[in-house]
Every structure is written in structure tokens, then in C-alpha cells.
Specification:
5 strands
Length: 179
Amino acid sequence: MKLFLVRHGESEANVADRINDDPARIVNLTVRGRAQAEAASDSLRGIRFTRAYVSEFPRAIQTAEILLRHNACVLHIDARLNERRSGMDGLPVHAFNHLIRPDPLRIKPQRGESFLEQLERVGSFMDEISVRHPEETVLAVSHENPILAVQALLAEDPERMALGSIANCAWVELVWTGK
């Protein structure tokens, strides 16, 4: 399966530097985020996605809808693509980063999940869709942490990936054959 993992465009929470890990709290794309999604859509225009998946978050759904304007495939919501649960919704991003820095793979905030738990969640998504769509080209719109988790599943040094970053509307293209 060929997969394009795209991070959502700039959101209101990105601008405020606040955590949004609760899909029930509506956080939309900014004007800049919509422009980023439009630019990514133009760059990906030549790709014929046969399947498309997105997290439950409005900012990811908004991005996916813009990205798919040149494709006729149906968008499927899958909670396994959701942002990492930090248990710190609404707090400054630096508070989460400070908390996990001593052990970015294993520290599990109260009411949150560790990076390793997130790896299991996104890994199950990846394995399932690769079995369902082995010869297809799939779009998945998600968030920074889940995309880094997919990269960590393929990396020799998952901790380095756990501390990584990916820009808004940047994407990772990969072939997934399972773990």
C-alpha cells in the first residue's frame, strides 16, 4: 500500500500554542491553514487517491476535504488517527513537552497516553488498512504526533522520532507492508 500521511493545516490551537487533544472541542483551520491545505492539494493534484482516512478532529477533516477536491474518493473517519491524548487539553504545548522530555517514549500524562501506546494505536490502523487496500494509494490526514509515530514504527531510533516535528500540511509518503 502506498500511503500519504498529511498533517492538518495551521489551526487556531497552533496559533495560540495550546494543546487540543479532544475532538469534541472545536478547533478550526486558520485562513493560513486553509491556504496551506490549498497549496498541498495543488501539489498532490496528480495523485489519484483510491481511499482516504482522517482523524475525528475538525481541523483534520477540513484539511482532508480541501485535499480531496480533485479526487472522488469517500472520506472515512478513524479515531486511531487522532492526536496523541495528552490529558492536557487547553494547556500550553510547552507544558506537555516539558513533562515528557525526560522519557518521551514512556511518560504517560494523567488521562493521556504514552508515545508507545500511541504507536500501538496507529500501528493497528496501518496494519488494517494495508490488508484492506494492499495495492491502493491511500491518503490519511492526521496530526503531528500520530505521523511521527508511524515514522517511528519504521525507524531504528523511535525516541528520535518522538521528539521530532512535522510542519502543517507537510506529508510523508511511504509504502507500508506491515510490521
